[in-house]
């Protein structure tokens, strides 16, 4: 049983981020470009050679992923034996995750993803991508810290059409801790 003013049927939905809006379009464009490029190259050099190229990319990608995984596990074991944290690794770049990403890009069928995977295996590219990712992550953290939990609680409130803010608590009658639980203090005093 509810009381109060009727709710409005037209609610304002929050705006979607640019990433969530354009990522599906980007993935579809990338897939179409990959297929077009495979057809173009297959017409120039032959379908069997393109097939061998795709198989070679898959094998090379699996080798890269395996090596990066072993290196990450070795670094973790060494860090545990030292009693430290498994941070950057031996070469100081911490590129195991990026090497695994490069291997996965090599394993995906397509020439553009293979080229991106091969580029990501180069140490200068790994350092640049790592710096970019770290600065983007820090910016994101600073943005979240400025909003704080107060904004999250503010968004969790329910707004009625007349402008009043209704704060409440959901009480389940079938679980312990409901309104009939003797260990729960009453809501009204």
Number of continuous helical runs: 5
Our measurement of the CA-to-CA distance between the termini, rounded to an integer number of angstroms, reads: 22 Å
- Taking strands numbered 1, 2, ... along the chain, how are they ordered across the largest sheet? 1-2
Strand content: under 5%
| Quaternary | single chain
Overall description:
There is one protein chain. With 189 residues, this protein is mostly helical. It has a domain at 30-146. It is 63% helix and 2% strand. It is built from 5 helices and 2 strands; from the N terminus they run αααααββ. The chain has helices at residues 18-45, 47-82, 96-107, 111-120, 123-155; strands at residues 158-159, 165-166. A two-stranded antiparallel ribbon has the order 1-2. β1 and β2 (165-166) form a beta hairpin. α1 (18-45) packs across α2 (47-82). The radius of gyration is 27 Å and the shape is extended. The model is unreliable at 88-93 (pLDDT under 50).
């Amino acid at each position: 049983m509810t009381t109060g003013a009727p709710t409005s049927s037209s609610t304002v939905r929050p705006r979607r981020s640019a990433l969530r809006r354009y990522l599906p379009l980007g993935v579809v464009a990338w897939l179409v470009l990959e297929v077009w490029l495979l057809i173009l190259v297959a017409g120039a050099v032959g379908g069997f050679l393109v097939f061998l190229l795709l198989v070679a990319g898959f094998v090379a990608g699996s080798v890269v992923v395996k090596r990066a995984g072993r290196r990450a596990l070795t670094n973790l074991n060494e860090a545990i034996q030292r009693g430290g944290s498994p941070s950057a690794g031996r070469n100081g770049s911490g590129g195991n995750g990026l090497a695994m990403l490069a291997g996965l890009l090599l394993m995906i069928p397509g020439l553009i993803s293979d080229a991106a995977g091969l580029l990501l295996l180069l140490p200068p590219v790994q350092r640049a991508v790592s710096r970019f990712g770290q600065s983007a992550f820090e910016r994101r953290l600073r943005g979240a810290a400025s909003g704080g939990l107060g904004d999250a609680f503010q968004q969790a409130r329910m707004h009625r059409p007349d402008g009043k803010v209704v704060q409440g608590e959901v009480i389940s009658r079938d679980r312990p801790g409901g309104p009939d639980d003797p260990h729960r203090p009453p809501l009204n005093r």
